[in-house]
Amino acid sequence: MDSSLVFTKWVVPVLILCVISSARANPPVNNSKIPPELQGVGITEHLGDKVSIQDLSFRDEAGKTVALSQYFGGGKPILLSLVYYECPNLCNLLLNGLVAGLRSLPWNPGEQFELISVSIDPKEGPDLAAKKKAAYLNSYGRPQGAMGWHFLTGEEKQIQKLASQVGFGYRYDEQEKQFAHSAALYVLTPEGKISRYLYGIQFFEKDLRLALLEASNGKIGSIVDRFLLFCYRYDPHTRKYSVYLSNIMRAGAAGTVLVFGSYLLLFWRRQRGLAVEHQGGSFS
Hints:
- The chain is built from 7 helices and 13 strands.
- It is of the alpha+beta class.
- It has a single domain (about 35-245), classed as Glutaredoxin (3-Layer(aba) Sandwich).
- A hairpin with a 4-residue loop joins strand 8 (about 170-175) and strand 9 (about 180).
- The longest helix is centred in the C-terminal third of the chain and has 38 residues, at about 245-280.
C-alpha cells in the first residue's frame, strides 16, 4: 500500500483523536491530609519492582492451592486487584468500575491479559470467591472470561507479603469490623514486574487498554493501539493517561515528510519517464 495512503487511513485519524483528547481537562489531585486513624493505610508505588510470584500461593475459587506464578509467564499482562469479597462499600465499587471498563475493551481475559482478584481477608474462602466470580462474570456478560479471571483467597502471611510488595497498606478496624484500605488496580508485566497503578473506582477503556499495552511492551493489540501508546503517556499528577504533545508533533512532522517525500518520488519518476519518452522520440 502507498505510504501516503497508510498515513491518511491510519495515522491521521489517530492524531486527530489524540489532539481532541488533549483538550479535555483532568480533575486535580486531592492533597488533603490523611486522618490519624488511617495512618499506614494507602498505596506506596513500587514501579519496576518484581513481585516474588514464585514464593506466593493461594487458593482458587475451586479450593485448589495454586502458585501465583502459574498466571504469569505466558506473555500476557496482568490486572491485579486486592479486595475482600464481603466489603460493604469500596471493593464492590472498584470491581463494578473494573467490569464497566472491561465491557468497552475488545480484549478478553485469558486471551490478551489475565485478571487476578485476591482477598485480603484470610477468613474468606473458596466458596465465597466462587460466588463473587459468578456474580461478576454475569455482570461482565462474557462467560468466556471465566478462564482468565481468577478469584483467590489465602493465608494471612501470603496476603500480607503480596500486599507489601505492591505497596498496598491496609488494616482491620475492630470497631467497625471492616478493613480500611484504598482502591487501585495494579498492572503487572508477564514477568511479574509492577508496570502501572490505576487509582480509583472508575476505569476508562482508554486507560485499561494503554496500561495493558504498556505492560506487554506492545505485544498485544493492533498497530493503531501501539500508535495510541506513542501519543499518550501516564501523568502521575492526574493519575491518568494524557496526550503527549511532543510525540504528536514529532509524528505529525514525520508524517508530513513521509507524504511530501512520496509525492516528490512520484513526481521524479514521472519526470524521468517523460524525459526517456522525449529522448526516444528524438531518435526516431
